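Hello again,

I reread your note about wanting to compare the complex against the isolated chains. To keep things tidy I'm splitting this into two emails, and this first one only covers the full assembly. Below are the input lines as submitted, including protein chains and any nucleic acid or small-molecule components. They are followed by the predicted structure of everything together. The single-chain runs will come separately.
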Amino acid sequence: MPIDRRTFLSASAASAAWLGLPAPDPMAGAMAGAPAAARSQGTERKPLRILILGGTNLTGPHNVRYALERGHSVSIFTRGKTQPGLFQDAFQEVEHLIGDREDNLEALKGREWDAVIDASGRKESWTRATAELLKDAAKTYLYISSTGVYYPYLKAGLDESDPPALEDPSKGKNGSYAYGVMKARSENVAREAFGEDRAIVVRPGYIVGPLDRTHRGTYWPTRIRRGGDVVVPGAKADLVQQIDVRDLTEFMIRLLERGGGGTYNATGPGTPTSMAEFVYGVKGAFSSDVTWHWIDDQEFLSEHRLTFAIPWIMPEGDHLGSQRISVQKAREASLTFRPIAKTALDTLEWYDTLPMEKQNSPPMALSPDRETKILTAWKAR
Ligand SMILES: NC(=O)c1ccc[n+]([C@@H]2O[C@H](COP(=O)([O-])OP(=O)(O)OC[C@H]3O[C@@H](n4cnc5c(N)ncnc54)[C@H](OP(=O)(O)O)[C@@H]3O)[C@@H](O)[C@H]2O)c1
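Full-complex prediction:
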């Protein structure tokens, strides 16, 4: 459903605010008019020319905001379909190149950048085409991969030395395998074109925070803010991982500034965090009255098809180690972590700006009805 101008403007204003940008009013565009050099005043940082393949969905706007803040210049490359114009006032300085990774890279030809962020790598062939085209036109190529390359997650502590699968034994029938293999092969394509010393691979876990339209990251803040009888699946000690999109994108820009290549798992928090610490951390952001109902019986949870409520995912079988990925290397390379309560609050500040029909769409982990039915069955068992 198209959004009306009033909703668009208020969403843009709110988005700009939590992105740390001025309101989308060209007359009020304090930062929009300021030269990049002025914003990086007082630092020795060399301004970079950054090209983002993508840039208008989840990671892109945060990458743009932080890159501009640090005095870099940014071009983005998209088809112009995802949220056209949403940030056009806030991001006046961003060059928007139009094309299609499927069959039209004309806008990228004959140009030079210091660094490329491949944020829309959905096919190995797309990454091959852009990495080959840009290998002599840019110094560094950062490919946004995924911890999904480790699927199936058969052990705890998976790190960058564990080799990802490069063939899909399910032949496309298992989406997790297909996605992980596509990402792993795309990483290799980027490394082959740019060389190990100029290719950076960042492997995020679940990305949450403002702009997360999957609503994986909005479930717990909205649920806990609402209060009442809250069902929490799993054992209190089950470990969970997710990364605030701002922690992730700021880390990526700092990697580009540092230069060189490397592969980094990038999820959070920085130290092992249990589901109990996570939900209590979210609760710390709200004054709602909550009664917790922990359901740790895996058989019951499976019967009621409650095997995940991201970041919790039932720690068994192919997902045994999915929430216990090592982030040691990224921490040492400057990945930092916002507090859980901060992510929760900022996520809801953004969520509340969405038109009603976009809230809870796609559906969240649990609808209120389903939660009540599960709780009733749990009490009656
Ligand atoms: N969300 C997560 O939890 C998660 C976890 C791990 C890894 N990741 C990875 O993180 C990366 C970044 O995710 P994201 O959500 O920010 O971006 P994304 O949704 O993967 O990419 C969206 C961007 O790509 C552009 N795009 C899509 N198709 C295109 C095409 N054919 N040609 C040119 N541009 C195209 C879109 O604009 P137009 O539609 O206008 O073209 C939009 O700007 C992805 O590679 C994803 O796999 C995500």
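For quick reference: The chain has one domain: 5-380.

B.
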